[in-house]
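Morning run. Coffee first, then this:
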Amino acid sequence: MSRKVAFVTGASRGIGRASALALANVGYDIVVTARTMQEGRAADGRPLPGSVETTTSEVRALGRDALALRLDLLDRTSIDRAVSQTLSSWGRIDVLLNNGIYTGPGSLDLLLDLDLDTVETMFQANLFSQLHLVQQVLPGMLERRDGVIVNMVSAAGASDPPAPAGRGGWGFAYAATKAAFQRMAGVLRVEHPDPGLRFVNVDPGFVVTETMKLNDPTGEIGKRFLGAPPEVPAAVIAWLASSPEACAWNGKTVIAQKLALDLDLHPDWRPSPPES
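And here it is:
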């Protein structure tokens, strides 16, 4: 019963992988979930490094236990199976990190170009599946009166793009899914005010991940924003999951890059100003 368990979606690469390692470093055993089980290609067939197996090996190399499970945000059966296997094997989930996201076409489509079936798919992967996961995991936390749910949100859900999609901005469909998802943590705080529970949004800022490079191959977004490495939001997530001081963020949205600098959770990644 002394085991602490963190369940991480989208843990094959990017922020999910970095967060799995950061949580392992603060004492959590990790349920590593994603669609891509083995190195080679993303689940949709495009070349993309990272896999559940690789992250699992890295967690174990840090001295923590890891459970490698396939989870597809477009397959509710796989979600139920992953939660069930976790509870059967380890008996609990102390931290749920809703990091996984839809990576298929449509995220950078202009509004008039959007296919409605694609938009429905994006909402399924970026909102409805996370809602389902919370409904599966939260009852155990309520029973123990202890637990942390971290939802990965985006500035795209709270602000207008600086340019049209494909020219340095983001598409409406992606932004709409993130805007809806961002409302969850505050509602959970109101519905479940037990001090042992925390529900937090994390806005990672612009982070240079493998998926970002895949979806923005010409680097137009990167020309407008200074990118941070995935380890920056990962350090913030580990702090939120392990520090008593993090209770101050219950129901709120954390701007990860600012908090990382304010609390010195990660070395400053920003380039030094040129010498005069």
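The longest strand covers residues 197-203. Good start to the day.
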